[in-house]
Amino acid sequence: MTYRKLPAGVQDVLPNECRALTDIKERLQRRFLSCGFRPVLSAALEYYDTYSEISNRIAQERMFKLTDTDGKLLVLRPDPTLAISRIAATKLEETQTRLFYFADKWDMQNAGGIYNREIFQAGVECLGEEGAFSDAQAVAFAVECLRETGLTGFIVDIGHVGYFKGILEECGLSDEDAETVRRYINAKDVLNAERVLRRAGAGEDTLNTLLALPSLFGGAEVLDRAEALTENACARGAIAHLKKVYSLLVGMGYEDCVSFDLGTVKRLSYYSGMVFSGLVKDLGAEVLGGGRYDNLADDFGKHIPAIGFAMGLKRILIALERQGRLPAFPRPDLAIVCEAGAEAEGYREYLRLLGEGKSVMLFAESGKEALSRAKEKAAKVYLAGKKGLKEV
Amino acid sequence: MIYFALAKGRLADESAELLRKCGVDTSVLREDTRKLVLTSADGKYGFFLVKPTDVPTYVEAGVADVGIAGKDTLMEQDKDLYEMLDLRLGECRLCLAGYPDRKDALTNPHLRVATKYVNTAKKVFSERGEDVEIIHLNGSIELAPVTGLADVIFDIVQTGSTLKANGLAVLEDVFDHITARLVVNKVSLKTKAAEILPLIGKLREVVS
């Protein structure tokens, strides 16, 4: 009976949930448009090679693959940001633009729950801009977008890959070891990080700094602590940058919405600077994630410094539900049931009322049963006859 | 309120004792009850007693903020969570074991490996570039080489007495220092920092 079921990790969105989803989407879209972002939608199908031959390869096992009629491998959009990066580098005239999208991201490895395989995302990409003010604006905009969805009690947690990269430089690790250490540090797994670093022959000083990384999180005071730990120019540059961003954010009024974590080290080859995540107490996983990716478009032939973020709308809905803040939707104002033979009159009244800005349902059936169903669906029910409407 | 996911069984008692030393009111854990969710008398802590292998699942999902789980389980499940502290409880090793006189056991081109730790075993052998057949068992792993179901086993070894009693021996230590770890949900650590960080600090003092 599999024909009645869905495969693992995907879900139908039923009307009540879909209504809330649409509502959030509309609110975000209004916000995006009013802030000068332009919509873009990348194709759902792309060539497998697009994602396997770039330097920021996506793991083969994470991509949904199909075979084209000519035998070429296709994938279902595995990463909207990479897709937009490709579009910006290969198809857009202007290199400086702000874009937004609503799109599904597909990840074959996710198992379900809040880790769905089909992930409906809302995202923005600010292309062709750099500097502390660009970064501060991105964080501030992330806060505004989360507010727009109705969430409360969230923070945006900020890190910077440059700090880790800088300290790592001192160790002279191979790319592979560096990636392994990054994963351990990102999981705050000091023990395994130490094991790999010692095996790779990292010096005692760098070792201590790297192992302190997982505890470098909290308020802005973390930045001072982090600065005192290293002499490395790249690492200190990252801290200086975050301090600039923070002071801008304080001036812009976002002091209470942000925290720092230098141990959050997202994929090094993808992100090039500041990174951030939106966290809500009511959900055990981030609802928003993003960062600066200045070199992502290089593979597609153009250097476009950029920053962006994406929100998982399903996760935001779950968090809203747990906060008791799901938007409520009133019933339609009116329902019209037509007497047999008065369908045309009923329809004309229906158009007139819609024109007045009311929300109206027109029933296809007539008779008592239709009337009682109409009463359940709408606040007010009219019976349409040859001579016009009559409230029942 | 902090929610703990604790593994039922031996580790639960040791974990409870450790938490008690850190000032957590764990008296509720000593009561003989069939309740699945327990709340400390002061209302500050909630406890879920779950199957050891389920601890990472509860913590990753954020249903529990903090959990105590064995490193073997954490490696096997590779969940997205923070591993904050080595609690140094229940130390053992993850080993390849089999008949010591069968010297070819580890170089057999079609090695059959019986284990509970399927993902970890796959990773270990693929890193070595070896093709092996992995046989998933849920318990009494030692029985596999004895009955001929597998050539070797990949399992935790504490004292090695079960192995010895069945004529088996450790052929290779793959991971040593497998102990209980304190794991924390990635969001809770930030959003409940005021409650969780002091607890981690105290635990660190107690175990070191």
In the sheet with the most strands of chain A, the strands line up as 1-5-6-12-11-10-7-9-8
CATH topology of the largest domain in chain A: the name is BirA Bifunctional Protein, domain 2
Question: What is the CATH C level class of the largest domain in chain A, in words?
Answer: Alpha Beta
CATH topology of the largest domain in chain B: D-Maltodextrin-Binding Protein, domain 2
Major sheet of chain B, described briefly? 6 strands, mixed
Classified by CATH, the class of the largest domain in chain B is Alpha Beta
**Which two chains share the most extensive interface?**
A-B, 21 and 22 residues
Quickly count the domains of chain B.
2
Write down the overall mean pLDDT of chain B: 90
Estimated radius of gyration of chain B: 19 Å
* Low-pLDDT ranges of chain B: none
Q: Tell me, what's the shape of chain B?
A: elongated
- Can you give the helix content of chain A as a percent range? 25-40%
H-E string of chain B = EHHEEHEHEEEHEHEHEEHH
For the record, the count of structural domains of chain A works out to: 2
Distance between the termini of chain A: 46 Å
Q: Give me the CATH architecture of the largest domain in chain A, please.
A: 2-Layer Sandwich
Mean pLDDT of chain A: 92
Strand content of chain A: 15-25%
**In angstroms, what is the radius of gyration of chain A?**
26 Å
Enumerate the spans of chain A where pLDDT stays under 50 for 5 or more consecutive residues: none
